[in-house]
Amino acid sequence: VLLLIVFLLKGKELSGRSDFLVFYIAGTKVRTGHALNLYTLASYPFSSPFDRAAWESLLYAPFTFFTYSVAFMLWTAVSVVLFGISGWLLKHEIREILVARSQLLRRLLLVGLLIPIGATLAFGQDAAFFLLLIVLALQSVRERKDFDAGSWLGLASIKLQLLLPVFLLIVLRRKWQIALSVVLTGTFLFCVSTALAGPNWV
Q1: Residues 6+ apart with CB under 8 A from 181
Q2: pLDDT in tens, 90-116
Q3: pLDDT class for 201, splitting at 50, 70, 90?
Q4: What is the pTM of this model?
Q5: 88/19 Cα distance (integer angstroms)
Q6: In this structure, are residues 123 and 20 in contact, taking their beta carbons and an 8 Å threshold?
Q7: Quick one: which of 115, 116, 98, 119 has its CA closest to 107?
Q8: Smallest Cα–Cα separation from 202: which of 58, 26, 52, 41?
Q9: Which residues of 155-165 are buried (b: 16+ CB within 10 A; e: fewer)?
Q10: Cα–Cα distance measured from residue 57 to residue 177, given in angstroms and rounded to the nearest whole number
């Protein structure tokens, strides 16, 4: 199902109208030494501008050694691997879905999982990376490694709008070591972004 979704949409996405195009342009700017122009609107004539923290553009720089089409396929392959790792780490939870008594419920849950994953792959989004960070944070909490959990969540600031509610819950539950680790990681990434793209990136 996932491969079918990607196949049906790849013509549109490989032509440049995808989220990955923004990441590709940002990575190109970093690789070519133009990171100070990372947020210049004129740099993104056919798409919305880069709206992530500057440090995330470092992830995409290696892909810019290839043409856009090849880079898109490579990013799709990386995303599939990241989703696979997350699935393996969540194998017990997924098994509970697979053995659900209601066949209708089981099918609905599986389709509910596949649709957003398929959309992420088809549009070249970074959700697979975000999901893996959240899953790693969950695993660290289960293993009572609170500082590690906070570090993974700090990296998950690539989607700050999704991290903030989680951080609020952490504070309300008084998980201070996790909260401190999130703040320290976030501060470090803030400094990296500022060094990379200058103070105007904020």
Answers
A1: 146, 147, 148, 149, 150, 151, 153, 154
A2: 888 777 777 766 777 777 777 777 777
A3: confident
A4: 0.80
A5: 26
A6: yes
A7: 98
A8: 52
A9: bbbbbeeebee
A10: 28
